[in-house]
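Thread: Modeling a multi-component assembly for a lab meeting

Hi all, long-time lurker, first post. My supervisor asked me to bring a structural picture of a complex we are working on to next week's group meeting, and I have zero experience with this. I have the sequence lines for every component (539 residues in total). Could someone generate the structure of the whole assembly? Inputs are pasted exactly as I received them:
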Amino acid sequence: MFTSRLTLLWLLALPLCVFTAFFLIPLGVVFVASLTTQDGQFTLSQYGRVLLDGYHWQVIAVTFRLAILSTIICIVLGYPLAWYLVRIVKWRSWRRACVIMLILPLFTSNIVRSFGWMVLLGRTGLVNDALLGAGLIERPIRFLGTETGILIGLVYILLPFTVLTIGNALARVEPSLEHASRDLGAGPLRTFCSITFPLTMHGVMAGGIIVFSMAISAYVTPALLSGGKVTVLAMLAFQQYSTVFDFNYGGALSITLLTFTMALIGISSWMTRIGVHEKKGN
Amino acid sequence: MIIRLIALTTLAYLVLPLVVVIGVSLTETKFLAFPPQGLTLSWYAVILENPTYIRSFLTSAGLAALATMAAMLVALPAAIAMTRYTFPGKSALSAVLLSPLVLPHIVIGAALLQFGASIGLVRNFPALLVGHVIIVTPFVLRTLLPLFSHDQLSQEEASRDLGASAWSTFFLVTLPQIKAGLVSGGIFAFITSFINVELSIFNTTSTLNTIPVQLFNYVQYSVDPSIAAVSSLTILAAAIAIILIDWLIGLDFLSGS
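Re: Modeling a multi-component assembly
Sure thing. I ran the full set together rather than chain by chain. Output:
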């Protein structure tokens, strides 16, 4: 039905126009702005301001620390939950209910979810009440305005992504491979480590990449749970556009954030590809 | 056993904040109280009497609906081109069209603001719309791409051989086979647009506001249970969307073999 070159051109016209005009060109504008002064002269000073300054590195360190920790925690918590949903739950309706519980937060605004945590993590919130009641702490812990509070919120928002990608990978593992491993005398742990886990590695990586890239660029959750006391890169960039109106410096911050995100996605997908090649080579 | 315990605790962790938000919205107190003290729906009455909430809700819904329709118009031909043709730059095109999924929305928003300022595309509805189209198109594209198969190609050829035009072949042969994917991708797109803050925040004003941005602005300065009531309504909308998707495509996709 669609055979001629002309049809191809017609098909691509709208997607190309829309994405060039409202995605590639705007990003180009930001890139150019990041390399110029207010009067349009070429300069690298905007990047110098970002990269030669201790405060910025501190912000970048906080951003990375939060993103790396969220990714690790999401995988560590997500794997057992995915395992439970795919391997342990026998009753279809209950699994369905679990999947709905997993997806419902994804369909709810970051604001609403972070708002829930603002209520829970307050000085007299449910979390402190429970910890005090259980005798685990003597005084309420301050969560809001700390990295711990932001971390709890970020993990909460990103966890469903790892559960879904790991769960999908787990559901596709051929059971006969595991049976073979057990028949050949490997224990459950050995079978998991050398058969099941490597076969789900691509799901773990895919989930990890999504979580990392979203955590590093998160704005709403850190902004709400930090109470202005902790700053991440996205908050710094947004300030330049919303209150300071320094588009050149803001551009440099945006491009820095963009570069970090793309570099990490690149590295992770390169690592996944290497992993696939090794498996093929064996 | 340990896995079961970790899994159920994690599930509880996922549901808890939403339960808290709904609980807080029912309290009789003027401050946020959980568990709620007394039960009342009066906070819902408060927001229904507030025209700015209603207006923001309508803006959000209209924006999400238009962005979803536009995204389908962009993603459908792109998906057909990418699955039925080989052409130079195909992988670059697919990378560009899917990249808004992983790129920081705050950067895309900033870029559109800076670019839009030069052509008058700022702080108005079209400015919001183009941004939302960019970020939701990949959701539709991603669900469409796996749906175009080789079997369809021969069916389409059969249809053409029997004298049907390209358009009627598309509507009678191709479209019915991808309809479920188009609808579920569309629901994902709608929700993504409906809950977005990072992009909208650059182009909203006091009179043109979306519901999540309005909530974001309120939550930072003052909090009372009416915010929980608005939040609960968005949770309800999300639940309806999920039930629709479950009904359309089934959410039992995590079942093992």
